[in-house]
Fold:
Amino acid sequence: MLAYTMAPGRGDTDLILEGLFHDLAARGLRCLGIVQINSERADSGPCDMDVRVLPDGPVLRISQDLGPSARGCRLDPAALEMAVGLVSARLASGADLLIINKFGKHEAEGRGFRDVIAEAVAMDVPVLVGLNAMNRGVFEAFAGGIAVHLPPERDALLSWVDGVVNARIERA
Structure:
């Protein structure tokens, strides 16, 4: 019960997953994980990247301000690992769904949320991951053929969640 979605525009996957979380929470489903919130900056620099640890926070800044000329990765690895620790601790008490905003560079390199995703799958907790084309091959190798590609559309994502949650209930 592992799926991924990819939206074409910058930040679109983040918006879709955040909206999905709100829809599912309104239905009473317990969703864990993180969603990303990008905030434009007044100085016209790159957006600030924050993640909300689901379901109720905290919100953590995962980007670093490296200055206007910086071209490298702005991810703050310590902040990301703090989010990983919080999600992992919450997962121990169970969930209806794990949402991970992105299988990114850290996950591709064996860090970040990679172990949390594997733990959730082993616990029979459905997992939905945001993905970009750059990391798709590594993610597919990690998933070992069990991941389903879902279109970045609200109804398709809700339908998948309904199906896996109902299947889980029937197995229980």
Remarks:
- Residues 84 and 113 are 6 Å apart (CA to CA).
